[in-house]
Structures are given as structure tokens and as C-alpha cells.
Design brief:
77% of the residues lie in helices and 0% in strands. The protein is an all-alpha fold. Helix 1 (2-12) packs parallel to helix 3 and helix 5 (67-84) packs parallel to helix 7 (108-120). The protein is globular. The protein starts with a helix and ends in a 9-residue tail after the last helix.
Length: 167
């Protein structure tokens, strides 16, 4: 768990090689660590290797045992769909979000990544609601959500109402 935590912290800092080393160490200690496969999937996705990324995420899904692990794997898929922007990416993000929420109610990671997807899709009002939900839950990702919310609110103030949320 320590290596997985460090890996995701390093991933946030864009230190891919260091993050990968942490996830690999976690897998050496526990080959059935779904969090490490989830992290490896995001690294592969950020490198543009989506076949490897989805393979890692699917493996994480296969070995996840607890509902929280399973829900976080769905969050991992949300991140990959958003990175890839493949066909029907946003409905896939929303489906993984619903699955995550069916496993763990009020999972801040799920709402945060839903907000990031909506922001990328320029659905700013929906993004705002998702980030506000993270703040309401008041678990992890609060500072990140505050920053994203402030950015979204600046965008919403600058965009005419009729074009703020294209469908």
C-alpha cells in the first residue's frame, strides 16, 4: 500500500519513471496488488500505449477483491477513457462512474475524475457539480477539486450561458 500511495503521488507530480518504480516494487511484494496494476495502467495510458494500459486495468479488475478496490479500478478506467478520447469515451466514463458509485457510495475519486472528464468535454456546469460533490464528501482530492472548481467558475463567468454546456 505504501508503494502504491507513493506511486500515485509521484504520478501527480508527473514523475513517471519514479511512479513506475513504486508500482513495480508493490507488485514484487504483492503480485495481486490491484492498485499497482491500476497505476501501471495510467502510466501506460499517459505514454499513449492504450492496449497495454487497458490490459493492466483489466488485470487490476480481475484481481480486485474488496468493493473499494473494484470501485477504484472503475475510476482507473474513467481516467483511461478520458486520456484516450476514443469512440464514445464520455458515455464510457459515465458508465464506469455509475459502476464505481454502485460499489462505494460517495467515492471522491470517482466524482473528481467525472469532473475532469466533463471539463475535458467542455461540459463545465456538469464539471462544476462533480467538483462540488468532492468538496461536500470532504475526503481525498479536496485541494485539487477546489483548484479545478475555481478554474471552471472562471470559465463559466467568461462564457455566455447559451454555450456554457454544449451537448
Amino acid at each position: 500500500e505504501h508503494h502504491v500511495f507513493n506511486g500515485f503521488a509521484l504520478l501527480k507530480m508527473e514523475r513517471m519513471d519514479d511512479a513506475q518504480r513504486e508500482f513495480e516494487q508493490a507488485l514484487r511484494l504483492d503480485p495481486k496488488c490491484s492498485g499497482a496494476y491500476r497505476g501501471m495502467g495510467w502510466i501506460e495510458g499517459r505514454k499513449g500505449d492504450f492496449s497495454a494500459a487497458f490490459a493492466s486495468m483489466n488485470h487490476a479488475k480481475e484481481i480486485a477483491e474488496k468493493n473499494r478496490e473494484k470501485a477504484l479500478v472503475e475510476v482507473g478506467f474513467m481516467g483511461l477513457y478520458t486520456m484516450q478520447e476514443g469512440p464514445e469515451w464520455l458515455p464510457r466514463v459515465e458508465q464506469s462512474f455509475r459502476t464505481a458509485c454502485s460499489l462505494v457510495e460517495d467515492l471522491p475519486e470517482a466524482y473528481f475524475h467525472l469532473g475532469m472528464a466533463y471539463k475535458q468535454a467542455r461540459l463545465y456546469e456538469d464539471a462544476e457539480k462533480a467538483f462540488q460533490r468532492v468538496l461536500w464528501i470532504h475526503g481525498s482530492l479536496v485541494s485539487e477539486s477546489k483548484a479545478e472548481l475555481a478554474a471552471i467558475q472562471r470559465i463559466l463567468r467568461a462564457v455566455p450561458k447559451s454555450t456554457s454546456s454544449p451537448k
